[in-house]
Amino acid sequence: FANRIFGPIWNRDNIACVIFTFKEPFGTEGRGGYFDEFGIIR
């Protein structure tokens, strides 16, 4: 990690979870098959 301040603490020992949320103005209809095919949906 290139940031000298956060590099020492931003690692798997100090961060339990990272969540990204993207809000879209449209639905997800028709895209579920794509994500399921590549194992993205759990």
TrEMBL record:
Reaction(s) this enzyme catalyzes, per UniProt: D-glucose 6-phosphate + NADP(+) = 6-phospho-D-glucono-1,5-lactone + NADPH + H(+)
Q: Which GO terms describe its biological process?
A: glucose metabolic process
One GO molecular function term of this record is: NADP binding
Pathway-wise, it operates in: Carbohydrate degradation; pentose phosphate pathway
Every copy of the Glucose-6-phosphate dehydrogenase C-terminal domain together lies at: 1-42
Keywords associated with the record = Carbohydrate metabolism, NADP, Oxidoreductase
What Pfam families does this protein's entry cite?
Answer: G6PD_C (PF02781)
Entry's EC annotation: 1.1.1.49
> Where does the source fall among the domains of life?
Eukaryota
Entry keyword Chaperone: no
Q: What is this protein called?
A: glucose-6-phosphate dehydrogenase (NADP(+))
Q: What species is given as this protein's source?
A: Homo sapiens
What does the organism's lineage look like at the top?
A: Eukaryota, Metazoa, Chordata, Craniata, Vertebrata
Report the gene name: G6PD
